[in-house]
Amino acid sequence: MMANMDDPTRPLSERPSDMTDPTRTDSVILPSLETPTLTKAELAELLFDRIGLNKRESKDIVEAFFDLLHEALVKGTEVKLSGFGNFSIREKGSRPGRNPRTGESVPIKARNVVTFHSSHKLKAIVQGEIPPPEEFE
């Protein structure tokens, strides 16, 4: 039985050269491995540009926000940001694991992890179901 030439599980090296052509409209193009990232410095710059605070005040506000978020989570307090989502601490119990290289059984200790659950509003905006709010000036 002959393999389908359009089979996406088939290695690229075994596909006809026209199958790997990025200009083809019937092929699936994977998103770039580089994902745009919004940094704290960029947040401070946005505060400077949009609100008119000086750069030092903008940086201090961003740092203070994340310090408060960090402190609350360390204390075990849930952080709720309306229209954005909730940060909380979840206790993960100990469990058996294994070393993937050797296959040896290794115990994984109990630990606390930070979880984030986005709000329904944020999910809808990201999915394009509702338009994003207008930018303020």
> How does the helix and strand content classify structurally?
alpha+beta
CATH homologous superfamily assignment of the largest domain: IHF-like DNA-binding proteins
General form: elongated
Q: Supply the number of structural domains.
A: 2
Treating each run of at least 4 consecutive H or I residues as one helix, how many helices?
Answer: 3
**Major beta sheet, strand line-up:** 1-2-5
Rg on CA atoms, Å: 24 Å
Protein topology:
Blueprint (H helix, E strand, L loop, with lengths): L39 H12 L3 H21 L3 E3 L3 E8 L2 E4 L6 E4 L2 E8 L1 H8 L10
Antiparallel strand pairs: 1-2, 2-5, 3-4
Keywords summarizing the entry:
three-stranded antiparallel β-sheet, HU Protein, Chain A, alpha+beta, 137 residues, 2 domains, 5 strands, 3 helices, two-stranded antiparallel ribbon, 30% helix, 20% strand
Can you describe this structure?
The protein folds into 2 domains: 38-77, HU Protein, Chain A (Irregular); 78-137, IHF-like DNA-binding proteins (HU Protein, Chain A). Helices cover 30% and strands 20% of the residues. A 3-stranded antiparallel beta sheet has the order 1-2-5. It has 3 helices and 5 strands; from the N terminus they run ααβββββα. The chain has 137 residues and is α+β, with helices and mostly antiparallel strands. The chain has helices at 40-51, 55-75, 120-127; strands at residues 79-81, 85-92, 95-98, 105-108, 111-118. α1 packs across α2 (55-75). It is elongated, with a radius of gyration of 24 Å. β3 (95-98) and β4 (105-108) form a beta hairpin.
